[in-house]
Amino acid sequence: MTPGELWGRDDVRRIADVTERQLRSWERQGLVESQEQFGFSDLLALKTLKTLRAQRIPPKQIRRAITSLKSGLDAVDHPLAQLRITAEGRKITVRVAGSMMEPISGQLLLDFDAAKEIEKLRAFPVQTAAVEAENDAKERLAEHWFQRGLALEETGAPVEEAAAAYRKAIEANPNASGALVNLGTIAFRMRRMNDAAQYYTRATMADPEYPLAQFNLANLYDEQGNFELARRHYLEAIRLSPRYADAHFNLALLCERNNDVLQAIGYWQAYLKLDSTSSWAGAARKQLDRLKRTVRSK
């Protein structure tokens, strides 16, 4: 293995010793990007993530830590790979410049001068131990019911059983964005569009950094013919996750329907850079060639 090498999903699962179910779950939860090829930094991130989950750190807590580290530390855009992130009990800790930081609680233990330390402390809200313990308990309960809902869906149980589990997750933690998204998807499949829109919107508010929530909301607006809102949310999904191939694909289709040929060409090209081998890539390539011929003929 070398830092410049790329691996497919099967290889990276074998190397990182994770199952496809685990990987897809982490992708749905926004902990790692959904992709078909992985680099060395992605492998490091998966190994860190596996360790944190083995220590029963909830996905929402991991996402909060990732977001805090990105916003609070310069030149850090891939914390799981760039930083040494571990867990002490139920808390996430990160080692930076030889010192420890607790990104969620706001306790910074870095060797900065006093002015810089105060500035960093202001960037991380401090919670009392009691409030933090209560929030952790709610998140653990919500995560339990979320995983229960996933297991029910994957085993083909009646959809209402999975929905009930997701609702219990939201009762425990109203900001359980994964459960909100999955309830939205259940409503979408049942053609309850108003309910789906409400769940997806709540998910984007609960976790503004969750690209899947933005993507699903865009799909809903796209199907309803509200192309402006669909476009806005596809773009937000891509902003949050630039390698989100499906968002590029759907945005290319939306641009075609609105006769934005040049923009459609750009999104088809972006999609094919991310996915050049699947059956969907073949369809994308045909669309791209057709549009290019159209432009040349004008």
* Binned strand content: 5-15%
List the helices and strands in order: EHHEHHHEEEEHHHHHHHHHH
Which CATH architecture of the largest domain would you pick? Orthogonal Bundle
Q: Order of strands across the biggest sheet?
A: 3-4-5-6
- Alpha-carbon Rg, integer: 21 Å
Overall structural domain count: 3
Structure report:
The protein is 67% helix and 7% strand. The strands form 2 sheets. A 4-stranded antiparallel sheet has the order 3-4-5-6. The chain has a two-stranded antiparallel ribbon with strand order 1-2. The chain folds into 3 domains: 7-127, Multidrug-efflux Transporter Regulator, Chain: A, Domain 2, CATH 1.10.1660; 128-243, Serine Threonine Protein Phosphatase 5, Tetratricopeptide repeat; 247-298, no CATH class. It has helices spanning 9-16, 20-28, 40-54, 59-72, 79-82, 114-123, 129-154, 159-172, 177-189, 193-206, 211-224, 227-240, 245-257, 261-274, 279-297; strands at 7-8, 37-38, 84-88, 91-96, 99-101, 108-109. Residues 108-115 have low confidence and may be disordered. Helix 11 (211-224) runs antiparallel to helix 12 (227-240). It is built from 15 helices and 6 strands. With 298 residues, it is an alpha+beta fold. A hairpin with a 6-residue loop joins strand 5 and strand 6 (108-109). The protein is globular and about 65 Å long.
